Amino acid sequence: MKIRVVSSREEIPDLNTNEKVIHLAFRPSNKDIFSLVQTCPKVEVIQIPSSYRRTVSKSIEMFLEMQNIKLIEGDVWGHRKDINEYYSVSPALLDKVKELKSEGMSDEEIVNKLEREGKLNRDMLFYILSKK
Fold first, then answer.
1. What pTM did the predictor assign?
2. How many CB atoms lie within 10 A of CB 48?
3. What does the pLDDT profile of the chain (132 residues) look like in tens digits?
4. CA gap 91, 117 in Å, rounded
5. In terms of C-beta distances under 8 Å and separation of at least 24 residues, what long-range contacts does 63-66 make, across chains too?
């Protein structure tokens, strides 16, 4: 699974229309989020750092909810945008999710276990679990 990292609002018009998971590394305005949803109609998750999450307006939260788009807090630790525009979730982590699910662990237990081991936050792990 890949997370598209967007460093500035100037990148939004050039995004691939098929992007599903996007991390905004800048403080987005309402206009930026509307533009993002217009450019990427298949987007399912928008991730922003927790410090920026608190500045998102209630109207944007409602808009995203109506569009069935999850707005989650989080970061892409150690990612170098100058090397690759995508942050890749480790295939080993995805295999571990499948393994733990097959052992009968609940989603909550899996998230608690993997949150300590991996670089992903709870909300992103729950999203990954919902897709597997």
1. 0.85
2. 23
3. 888 999 899 999 999 999 999 999 889 999 999 999 999 999 999 999 888 888 889 999 999 999 999 999 887 765 566 567 888 888 888 888 889 888 888 999 888 888 877 677 888 888 888 876
4. 14
5. 63/33, 63/34, 63/37, 64/33, 64/37
